[in-house]
Recover the amino acids of this structure.
């Protein structure tokens, strides 16, 4: 996929969140070195259960996280309790999340769509819609059998005196405490890359 320039990108339709970075790259076409060269980036290490904020290629802060209950392998389908693996972006900030606050991840990406198409989970039309959305800087469709609503989020909205703790596992999201998501939520910008490593 060719690199695009900011002037060549289409603006997202009103009411849709941009998943293209300010620097004009598409997440599916770049590697770790380019992610770390971005102004800001998030790198998740599933094996270590950590989320690290990077600024200008330098790690700034690392947080412990919970990931999907089924820890090995990338997310394949809705309900598999796996966390995706690959390159994504922050698609939107979600202040009204049932998990306090959340950052929506641009799952599924092109590789997820190709795998789903080959496995018969999605149709060619759905694969094309995912690709078109990503190329246009929009969130991919969230209504396919590949799964949906993958987020970096906090815990539930806490009652008074309820402890702010990291849950044991998720259904596929990456979870931190409410205090941690406040920091991450305020630091991250829509469109920055999120690399989720095995």
């Amino acid at each position: 996929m060719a690199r695009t320039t900011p002037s060549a990108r289409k603006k997202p339709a009103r009411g849709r969140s941009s998943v293209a970075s300010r620097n004009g790259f598409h997440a599916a076409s770049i590697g770790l070195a380019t992610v770390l060269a971005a102004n800001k980036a998030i790198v998740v290490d599933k094996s270590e259960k950590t989320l690290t904020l990077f600024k200008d290629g330098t790690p700034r802060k690392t947080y412990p996280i919970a990931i999907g209950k089924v820890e090995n392998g990338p997310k394949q389908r809705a309900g598999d309790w796996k966390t995706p693996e690959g390159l994504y972006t922050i698609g939107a900030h979600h202040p009204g999340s049932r998990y306090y606050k959340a950052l929506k991840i641009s799952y599924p990406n092109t590789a997820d769509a190709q795998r789903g198409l080959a496995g018969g989970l999605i149709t060619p039309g759905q694969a094309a819609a995912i690709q078109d959305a990503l190329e246009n800087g929009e969130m991919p469709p969230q209504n396919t059998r590949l799964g949906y609503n993958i987020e970096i989020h906090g815990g539930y909205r806490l009652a008074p005196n309820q402890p702010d703790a990291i849950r044991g596992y998720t259904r596929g999201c990456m979870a931190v405490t409410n205090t941690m998501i406040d920091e991450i939520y305020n630091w991250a910008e829509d469109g920055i890359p999120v690399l989720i490593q095995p």
